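[audit] Reproducing an earlier prediction to check determinism. Same input, same settings, fresh worker. If the tokens differ from the archived copy the diff job will pick it up downstream; this log only records the rerun itself.
[audit] input (182 residues):
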Amino acid sequence: MEDRNKSNAGMGLGIAGLVLGILSVPFGIMGCTFATGMVLGILGITLSSVGLSQARKANSQTGLIIAALVISIVGTSFAFIRMTTTVTKSKEGFEILRHKFKNFEEHSDDFEEAFKEGYESEINEDMEETLEDLEEDIDIEINIDEALEGLTDEEKARRLGKAAGKALKGFSEGLKDTTESK
């Protein structure tokens, strides 16, 4: 019995394992630090196991080293449980998101079809009117060049200003009509 009290073999590793085991418990319990808790717990188990082996060979005290081993195992267990629940919840969350995205795609296709059915004729009519207006504007522009031949610069400026005013007035009335109808 006297030999057990004199030897401190494995005590340094046991204390290091105890510290790591104590740290692994809160890290293993907390949600975002379970990986750190797992690493600390595994290191604590390793150091405590080596320390226990050394203490048994030297026939010294093993109480503290066994406590370090138990606490490290508990911390690692908490971290493992937290990890499995987090992974399970993540998989469930991804499945929910995937299902909702699939529903969104289905509803967006339905919306697109309904939109085309409801507004396709209006859009086509508006485009036809716009194209006709552009054709008229091109014809007017050609006629303007012919109409302005032989006029003075002042007379050309007066007529172009008048035409621009009419065009601006027509544009603002058209814009007003589109904003009131929607």
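[audit] rerun output stored. Observation attached for the diff report: The chain has a mean pLDDT of 80.
[audit] end
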